[in-house]
Structure formats: C-alpha cells, structure tokens
Amino acid sequence: LWRNRPMVKGRNKPISAKTAENHIKQLKAFFRWLHRSQMFSWRKPEDLDEIDTRVPKTPEELQAVADTEQVETFTREELCILNEYATPLERVLLLLGLNCGFGAAESGTLLLNQIYLFQPHPKADIIGFETSPKDSFLRRVRLKNGVYGEHVLWPQTVEGLQRAVARRQRIGNATPDAVLLVSEQGEPLYHDTESDNVGRRIQNLWYGGVLRRVLKDHPEFRTLSFGKLRKTAGNFIRRFSDGETQGVFLCHGRPVKSDELSDIYANRDFAKVFAAIRAAGEYLQ
pLDDT confidence of 58, banded at 50, 70, 90? Predict the structure, then answer.
C-alpha cells in the first residue's frame, strides 16, 4: 500500500516518497515489537525481512535530484523577507535554525542552562579558538542521537535569546533546567501529545504565522517547511568550510561518513565550526 504511494486525501497527487517511507518505518517497528511481545502469539514469518520496502520515485522526482541545487534551501532574499515579517518569537526560531542548524526538536527542547551569554569559551586554548567575554554560545547534547554540539552565536541571535529568556522569566517557573520556548500558558512548544505523537506547535507557528503573513504580500513566495532552515544552515557551513565541519555543526552521529572511528581517536573540531558560523553570519549580514 505505502510503496504504491496512495493519493493525498482531497488532492490529485500521491503522497511524498518520504511520507511513504515513514509509514513503512513505523509499520516495521510495530512488527518488531509484536514479534517480541509476550501478550500476543503472532511471530514474524521467516521471509518477512525479504519483502521489498523501497519506495519508488517518479521520473520527475529523480530528475529533480540531478541538479546543482538538489537540496531545497532558502535564498538570502527569502531569509530577509522572513526576518522582516517574523514576530520576536518567530525570529528566535529563524535565528536558531540558521545560526545553529536547529530543527523543531532542537529549538523546542533548548534549556535555559544550555545558553551561555557573554562569556569566553572555557576551553578556547584546547580547541585553538580566540575568544573574549563578548562571545556567546549554545552547548548541548542533541536528544535525537546523543551527540554533543556547540555553536557560537551571532549578535542577532544573542539579542533574540535575551528577549526569549526575559519572556520565559515573565511566564514563570524559569528554573535553570526549564525549556526556553513555551506558550504563554507555559506549555513547551515541542512535546509529545497524549497519543505519543510529536506536537506540531512550532510547525503550526511557522505556517500559520510568519509564512501566512508573508504570502499576503508576496503570493509567489515559496512555502518551504521549517525544517528547510536546518538544511539552509548546513548548506552555508559546507560552503564556508567542508563536509566534515557541516556534520559537526549539524551534530550528525558520524561526521566523517567513511570513518566509523573518527570520534574515538579525535575530538570534533569546534573551532572550525565557529569560524564557519561567523563566515555565514557575515554573508547574511
């Protein structure tokens, strides 16, 4: 069913290949759980794992990849428009996406004690990075894969975070380990719902907020998803550095794809990440 990519409800187009792949991934996870569960007698058939689960793409989709810009990212002009139309909260999300490569999960789970404003890097000599008390950083572990990451912050990001911290303190219960971005009622913008699905408040804020206002004045503006900010940021870092630095910036589990042991024998080069972030900031200035 999912490999055949059924039509989107109410539209004359098939679901995306990524959506179909996600459905199949969930189904396979369910079968694994059911096989191991003691509550049910069902067990996997011997040839279940031999079923082809690859999702075919249309000729148009395959051709779209054969392009110099095969990954959809925002242009600098589009980012200017988004920054102009964004509310202070939306601008924080925009800046975290571009400055730190944060998606909805990373932005929505950022804690107050992971923000280090106006202080030099504590291990600058070790990583070979010139720093001063004017610098600011985010230092945290990416929850999705447990990978540690650091990002030096642009002045605009620092200003946005200062506003967000003041807002969080106004809302209340702003303990050091509290989530930064919450609703006015104090509910996290990113959380699991009662049905164990991930809440989409940040995505809804993106589509129903800044993008909706932009489209009123710019009907031809591309409605790229919030996640494309992370890809845009990664594209900038790779442009101003290299693929390994991009992987460290995005907190990938293995930044050197060809070397499984790179993180065992050497520390990640955050100095190169900081230099690339600053170069990207100058480009966007």
Answer: confident
Q: What share of the chain has pLDDT > 90, as a percent?
A: 79
Q: What span, in angstroms and rounded, lies between the C-alpha atoms of 104 and 20?
A: 21
Residue 196: the pLDDT is: 45
The secondary structure of 111-137 as a DSSP string is BGGGEE-S---TTHHHHT----TT--E
CA atoms within 13 A on the CB side of 273: 27
DSSP codes of every residue in 4-32: T-PBPTTSSSBPPHHHHHHHHHHHHHHHH
Q: Say how far apart CA 220 and CA 214 lie, in whole Å.
A: 10
For residue range 59-114, what is the model confidence (pLDDT) as tens digits?
877 776 655 456 789 999 999 999 999 999 999 999 999 999 999 999 999 999 99
Report the distance separating Cα 83 and Cα 73, nearest Å: 15
Mean pLDDT across the stretch 42-58? 91
Phi-psi domain of 10 (left: phi exceeds 0; alpha: psi -120 through 50; beta: other): left
CA distance 269 to 276: 11
- Burial code of 56-90, b = ≥16 C-beta within 10 A, e = fewer? eeeeeeeeeeeeeeeeebbeeebbebbbebbeebb
Instruction: Please list, in sequence order, all residues whose beta carbon lies within 8 angstroms of the beta carbon of residue 65, skipping any fewer than 6 positions away.
Output: none
The answer for residues whose C-beta is within 8 angstroms of residue 78's C-beta and 6 or more apart is 221, 222
Give the span between the Cα atoms of 111 and 121, in whole angstroms.
Answer: 19
- Order of strands across the sheet that contains 115-116: 115-116, 137-142, 147-152
DSSP 8-state symbol, 199: P
